[in-house]
Amino acid sequence: MGNYRETNMREFIKTPDSLGNFMLELSKKHFNNVEEILEPCAGDGALVDIIEKHYNVPIIKLDIQPLRDDIKEFNFVKDIKKLEYKKNRLTIMNPPFAKSIKFIENALKKSDMLVTLCSSNTLFNLDWDKYDILEVYYIKNQIFGELKLNIGLFVIKNKSY
Amino acid sequence: MGIFFPDEKHMDKWFRIIKSNKHKNDLDYYISRINFDNYFIYKKTNKQREVSKEDFLKFNYSGYIFFNKIIYDNKELQQSLEYLWSLGITIMYLDKPLPRLSDLKKIKVIDGL
Questions:
Q1: What predicted TM-score, i.e. pTM, was given to this entire model?
Q2: To which CATH superfamily is domain A3-158 assigned?
Q3: Which residues of B touch A124 (CB under 8 A)?
């Protein structure tokens, strides 16, 4: 699924502005003590640009294959131990859908607050008992470039937070 | 094509049995390991539904998921699936037990943005 980069076929789906703005509305609604934001699959920076319009806090921008100079190369699955946890950090992301669950689990190890897109199937395969699920959306017929998909969106915080 | 069959240590709560290119043994090889009295069985793809032991043995679908009767509530699972279908939500692969029905009612369905 998704668009693929010619270089290594890694899954890449650009976040549409409308969806990004909706994610930021939800983060503002639920989280009012954000001191830092993590975007671990920043790609071409589409979601980063939207985050910067809504928050005036430091943003950690990472991607396994950055498409912009201000995004640091980092494998959020394999290198996760190299990233430190920080209190009052919010993660906002549109991860590779095939790895949604791993990205969600890792995000909630390194931050306490999360707004994420995911595959529709991930909605039902995540362990809901493990986290405090604040909002869940099933978005029908979302357009990603030339694709039309049913997708999921979670707003989550750690139970301990 | 064979099937993927779980280790015995993974069979206490729920487990999946699926067709697999990576495995050589067929269902007959494993069948004696299943105590069918302990589980209810669902086909795991598309419109999920409970199947009988006899239907399972025909293995007409790509995969099945077994739930321990003592731990999981078959009636609630059916109600959960019907609730999701009523919202227009279909689950492509039922890969594990669903969240509780009370939790599933948190899901808001919206059209693409």
A1: 0.88
A2: Vaccinia Virus protein VP39 (3.40.50.150)
A3: 91, 94-96, 98-99
